């Protein structure tokens, strides 16, 4: 059964979508089967994976409101190598429409259950807020990946997110764990970056990924070609950093198993 990871942070522009696309492609490069769920009405993960968001016949919206089976809304990407459950602006309406539906927080969880065996990893790209869509992602996930920029206000936003995760764990999804905090757009020459980074490690210890994602122009360019950096320029620093992150994630995942067999 695939591991479901919600990539979330209520702050916009911290690298959630970039992380989803490039981690998905890196996991594929290491022969894992991956589904990327775009849960942001902006549809950036959809476009960045080479899927035209305005030409979708079916999207995650239809799945959430029960208009279509998840298998029919998932599509293969042409070059990125993973499957995607795409999104577009229709999803904005889901936030309101979900409120009137039964099990409104669990609809994504129930849908993903049907396809979980087909994948090794399912990554969910969350919108930049702690709304009903994000609640659905957290209710469906086994782990949360939190991308963050090491800047002054980063830690402040983090406590609200950790509180939310705690509440979801209590009432909806007891198995939910913080899988890891990911430092993105990292610039080691910046003193503040280093300070915030040190504070993070102090608070969260080994839940901070060792891999850091550098600021890299290829990561910013690749989406306009509808490609992950791994495909657009696989030797770029950005692509290599996400490949290292995939390795770290896989090792973390496989560790308990090794311990049992040892
Ligand atoms: P979010 O999904 O959290 O809103 P994005 O992944 O869309 O954030 O990133 C915000 C912007 O920063 C995008 O234009 C993206 O291309 C750029 N970006 C993200 N990560 C990097 C990076 N490591 N280096 C350079 N640009 C980046
Ligand atoms: Mg995004």
Automatic annotation (TrEMBL):
Gene3D superfamilies: P-loop containing nucleotide triphosphate hydrolases. CDD domains: ParAB_family. InterPro entries: AAA_dom (IPR025669), DNA_Partitioning_ATPase (IPR050678), P-loop_NTPase (IPR027417). It comes from the Bacteria. Pfam families: AAA_31 (PF13614). Residues 3-178 form the AAA domain. To B.subtilis soj. This is ParA family protein. It comes from Aestuariirhabdus litorea. The lineage of its organism: Bacteria, Pseudomonadati, Pseudomonadota, Gammaproteobacteria, Oceanospirillales.
């Amino acid at each position: 059964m695939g591991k479901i990871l919600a990539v979330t942070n209520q702050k916009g522009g911290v690298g959630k979508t970039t992380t989803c696309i490039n981690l998905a492609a890196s996991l594929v490069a290491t022969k894992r089967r991956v589904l990327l769920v775009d849960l942001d009405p902006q549809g950036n993960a959809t476009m960045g994976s080479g899927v035209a968001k305005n030409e979708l016949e079916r999207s995650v919206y239809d799945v959430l409101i029960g208009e279509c089976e998840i298998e029919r809304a998932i599509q293969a990407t042409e070059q990125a190598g993973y499957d995607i459950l795409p999104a577009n602006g229709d999803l904005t309406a889901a936030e309101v429409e979900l409120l009137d539906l039964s099990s409104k927080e669990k609809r994504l969880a129930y849908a993903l259950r049907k396809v979980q065996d087909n994948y090794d990893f399912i990554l969910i790209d969350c919108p930049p807020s702690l709304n009903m869509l994000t609640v659905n992602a957290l209710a469906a996930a086994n782990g949360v990946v939190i991308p963050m920029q090491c800047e002054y206000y980063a830690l402040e936003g983090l406590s609200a997110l950790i509180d939310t995760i705690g509440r979801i764990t209590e009432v909806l999804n007891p198995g939910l764990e913080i899988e890891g905090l990911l430092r993105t757009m990292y610039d080691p020459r910046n003193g503040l970056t280093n300070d915030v980074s040190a504070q993070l490690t102090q608070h969260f210890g080994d839940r901070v990924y060792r891999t850091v994602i550098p600021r890299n122009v290829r990561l910013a360019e690749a989406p306009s070609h509808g490609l992950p950096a791994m495909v657009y320029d696989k030797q770029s620093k950005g692509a290599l950093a996400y490949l290292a992150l995939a390795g770290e994630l896989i090792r973390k995942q496989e560790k308990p198993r090794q311990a049992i067999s040892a």
